[in-house]
């Protein structure tokens, strides 16, 4: 590339964004050109400007980093995506790969690994921080030995979007406006989610969303 890599940084904590920005902008080949406080804003910012790389937190309001990654890789196939997270969790890791991310970096070692991950992403190489990589490979081999695969998604991507927004306290009309669908469609999806998951009401949906990492407790 002729100039520095243009980075979009998305995290709902301002102090985290500030710290990550300092790490990236200490390097001459990286520059943060946009920030976002949630996944939906990250998608808007990426579509609005010239961005080469999106660094996304997993747990964010309105739209998670995983949901944003899916949307970005669909809409902007040339954009590279990295997940920056506190979750050393194999399911999140594999979901990140399925969503189109090319790297998975833990916040606890961001000062050590994030710059290398950004450079690897721009070379179209995958990056997983070494400690997580060993644990994930060991876990994957154990799954294969047992004849297990990855668990299937319990709900569709659209249902996951609606589940998250319901758990955050949005009404059906508000969700319809955010997702550009009708309130009746929202209600139908919500009924399907309750049926699929064997849940009864918003409280149980919220508890499920917390366990699934869609919203913070």
UniProtKB/TrEMBL annotation:
* 4-aspartylphosphate carried by residues: 57
**Cross-referenced SMART domains, in alphabetical order?**
HTH_LUXR, REC
Which residue numbers delimit the Response regulatory domain? 6-122
Q: Name one GO biological process term.
A: phosphorelay signal transduction system
State the Gene Ontology terms under molecular function: DNA binding
- Name the keywords, alphabetized: DNA-binding, Phosphoprotein, Transcription, Transcription regulation
What InterPro entries has UniProt attached to this entry? CheY-like_superfamily, NreC/VraR/RcsB-like_REC, Sig_transdc_resp-reg_C-effctor, Sig_transdc_resp-reg_receiver, Tscrpt_reg_LuxR_C, WalR-like
Q: Which residues does the UniProt record annotate as the domain HTH luxR-type?
A: 148-213
Protein name listed in UniProt:
DNA-binding response regulator
Q: Which organism is it from?
A: Streptomyces actuosus
């Amino acid at each position: 590339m002729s100039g520095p890599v243009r980075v979009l940084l998305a995290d709902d904590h301002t102090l985290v964004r500030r710290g990550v920005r300092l790490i990236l902008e200490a390097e001459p080949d990286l520059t943060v050109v946009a920030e976002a406080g949630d996944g939906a804003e990250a998608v808007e910012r990426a579509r609005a400007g010239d961005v080469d790389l999106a660094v996304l937190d997993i747990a964010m309001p309105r739209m998670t980093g995983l949901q944003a990654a899916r949307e970005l890789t669909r809409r902007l196939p040339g954009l590279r995506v990295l997940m920056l997270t506190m979750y050393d969790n194999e399911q999140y890791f594999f979901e990140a790969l399925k969503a189109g991310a090319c790297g998975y970096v833990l916040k606890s070692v961001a000062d050590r690994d994030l710059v290398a991950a950004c450079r690897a992403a721009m070379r179209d190489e995958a990056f997983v921080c070494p400690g997580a990589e060993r644990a994930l490979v060991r876990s994957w081999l154990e799954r294969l030995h047992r004849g297990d695969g990855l668990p299937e998604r319990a709900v569709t991507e659209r249902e996951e979007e609606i589940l998250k927004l319901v758990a955050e306290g949005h009404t059906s009309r508000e969700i319809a406006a955010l997702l550009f669908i009708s309130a009746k469609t929202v209600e139908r999806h919500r009924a399907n989610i309750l049926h699929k998951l064997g849940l009864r009401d918003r409280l149980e949906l919220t508890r499920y969303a917390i366990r699934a990492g869609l919203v913070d407790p």
